[in-house]
Amino acid sequence: MNDAQEHREEDAAVGEDSGTRFYGLNDEIVQEIQEAIEREDAALIYERLADWHSADMADLIEQLKPKLRLPFLQIMGERVDPDVYSDLDENVREHLVDDMEPAEIAAFLNELELDDAVDVLESFEEDEQREVLKEIPADERVVLQEGLSYGEDSAGRLMQRNLIAVPEYWDIGQTIDYMRDTDDLPDEFYEIFVVDPRHHPIGTLSLNRAMRSKRQVLVRDIMDTEQKLIPVDMDQEEVAYLFQQYRLASAAVVNEDGALIGVITVDDIVDVISEEAEEDILRLGGVSEDDLFGSVMSTTRARFLWLFVNLLTAIAASVAIGLFDATMEAIIALAVLMPIVASMGGNAGTQTLTVAVRALATKELTAGNMLRILSKETMVAFLNGSIFAVLIGIVAWLWFSSLNIGLIIALAMIVNIIVAAVAGMIVPVTLDRMKIDPAIASSVFVTTVTDIVGFVAFLGLATIVLL
Amino acid sequence: MNDAQEHREEDAAVGEDSGTRFYGLNDEIVQEIQEAIEREDAALIYERLADWHSADMADLIEQLKPKLRLPFLQIMGERVDPDVYSDLDENVREHLVDDMEPAEIAAFLNELELDDAVDVLESFEEDEQREVLKEIPADERVVLQEGLSYGEDSAGRLMQRNLIAVPEYWDIGQTIDYMRDTDDLPDEFYEIFVVDPRHHPIGTLSLNRAMRSKRQVLVRDIMDTEQKLIPVDMDQEEVAYLFQQYRLASAAVVNEDGALIGVITVDDIVDVISEEAEEDILRLGGVSEDDLFGSVMSTTRARFLWLFVNLLTAIAASVAIGLFDATMEAIIALAVLMPIVASMGGNAGTQTLTVAVRALATKELTAGNMLRILSKETMVAFLNGSIFAVLIGIVAWLWFSSLNIGLIIALAMIVNIIVAAVAGMIVPVTLDRMKIDPAIASSVFVTTVTDIVGFVAFLGLATIVLL
């Protein structure tokens, strides 16, 4: 009894944390729940997790040791909000759902909003998908199948089909009465859509505008006719761009004929923006997808390709070095110093390419200003290159008591940093024009260039001057 | 006249682009406007830019050659929507505002929403700020100064002060009448706040719920009492986490006493999420802030520090290599091959640290599961390390016809890739616990470790075995 009381006090402390975290999990709770699962103390678990939000519950499941996840769900039983499954990391979800019957899966898909249900369904293999779909009532199955038919990452996947559309000749009173009489409305929405007889959107009416108008005011007189329409096959990255650029709260999705078929709201976009940024971060780091909760084998496979490409480029750099083995044999100081030039070039190149990749993603870098920004980057490289050339020149001179070596490394440094800036800008822009994601491949190209130029410039100059 | 018609057709083509871009700028328009500015063809500019959204206008200004930006604004005059200034890149804005009088600046600040006005004001030096504030009417100045008083990146900066708060004993009819009679409402809002007599928030009422209820229904009977309150000094990153985690559309901001003082809506959060992700991307790439439109000097300065740190670590790696100069002199193949081991370690380490930095940002990686994920990363490194050890071992053996060299590089490779995984996980986690942003410093630590371990393992083993 004292125990329970203590828990309750801790719980309060979690809600109003001492500083950095106000909400969400902490390690003590995870630890406590794990112990409770192990000794099958359902009462404690129920008490501690009462009223938890589905997103926190999903986080908790991710944090549990994998072997405790299914026992946890069995203990929780009906208490698990189906939303938990759409909030879960995909790797963890797949692992859990593997142990469920198609009928169980169908039952909880039923509880999810359409976009979440399609997400869950899509993570299955095709035959699994069919099994599950068989268990779903026909009318909902049709909706799900239509959802699946839109391309991954398309506007069709993001949209909700539930929306309010009214004709322009209605007045506010009719609109409100219609809303009061309709049961199947979305949980949250911000706008009423105004459509013509062919169901083409012709304007929008924000709820606050509608609420502040008298019942007899006509919709057409207060609707906002400026609207951004989203084609159902638009890529989600482009959709996110529109929402950000024009600060939209929601936007109508139209089919090929221009008819209103759905609505995307800004809260769906929040996830897209995170996903797209995450994708760029991971790709720049040579990781193809979020594999934190992936298995050892799948993670190994996913990272292999990038490392293999890097092995080839590293061997190419070594071949370049091998051309100068006689020079290095004569002056071993060159072998000692040569990684510095390559490393500085690699870092300078990475700085430029990071800015370029980001600016391409935000559409700030375009064909129009590319040359101007390239010339700026070259100037920056010249300035920083000169400073570092002097610094490393002096270090090398003093270290090996050879002014010549100092001059050679200084010259190689400035050349390589300028080459790095040019490659760091041109490589991503070129990839982008070739419709290849610059985040995924720029880095390997640029560092290959800076490695090879770094080694060849340094060793080549040394061969000419010193031998 | 034919000319104007042609332009109009082009314009239509921009609106419904052939594929990738549906909205926004394209290079042809930028080029055309630049030429029009140069020949002072105001009529063409007015025609082409009629009804442009402020965000597109800001993009256009960023794309113009710097020397054409002020002439452009002079031609546009009153036609420039003040929102353009808050949409502009900070570097470009500073450059433009330098040429304006404080009174002019004050005039357009007046037109902006509070959070945007504070942003613009904050980008000025302190004395400039004072000059501008002097020109602003006293009542608005107080509001701006209060905005400035909240920490940069705090909830206080993000919030809007305009909101609707009603007592719980009102009915829907009273609420609607109050909204109809109040002029100073925000442009967009999604919720009505319910407060107690001390103005503490006790619930929320979504507009759609309110609209669908009869006039005589009491607010207290339909309000949602589950709400996430945001302390005014909460960091914007934490605020964004709350919005994403709990899919909030808006949330109440409270002061130290718990009284309602503002509201943050999800569209403000969209920008925060982009900003925070951009910060991580740039920092991982060794760039401290978005400098695409920065001057040569400020960009050079900003990038210098990172390159300088890298110079020191590169010299440290060279010192490590220098310990083995006799070994390399005896067997020059070692100098040729050594960058491969370091490079593979660097890449494997970057993969792991990228996943770790991202998982720390999304709160998926915690003290609770750190050991589990570390052991997974080590397994992955062991597997990939073994494969690459065999590959490079065979290449080196055949290249230099020495089985010993093949064995040595294979062993060094596996050691370095495992070290890379461990460092790639432990370094960001440790920095995070020390309250240092792991995105900013992880990469330099990890690559220093993999460089030095790579060189020392390879050359050290060679010294033991071969000499």
Automatic annotation (TrEMBL), chains A, B:
Alphabetic keyword roster: CBS domain, Cell membrane, Magnesium, Membrane, Metal-binding, Transmembrane, Transmembrane helix, Transport
Coiled-coil ranges per UniProt: none
InterPro entries associated with the record: CBS_dom, CBS_dom_sf, Mg_transptr_MgtE_intracell_dom, MgtE_N_sf, MgtE_transporter, SLC41_membr_dom, SLC41_membr_dom_sf
Annotated CBS domain residues: 223-279
GO annotations of cellular component type: plasma membrane
Transmembrane portions of the chain: 304-324, 330-357, 378-399, 405-427, 439-466
GO molecular function list: magnesium ion transmembrane transporter activity; metal ion binding
Mitochondrion keyword on record: no
Membrane-topology annotation of the record: Multi-pass membrane protein
Family recorded in the similarity comment: Belongs to the SLC41A transporter family.
Subunit structure: Homodimer.
Record protein name field: Magnesium transporter MgtE
Source organism of the structure: Sneathiella litorea
Organism phylogeny: Bacteria, Pseudomonadati, Pseudomonadota, Alphaproteobacteria, Sneathiellales
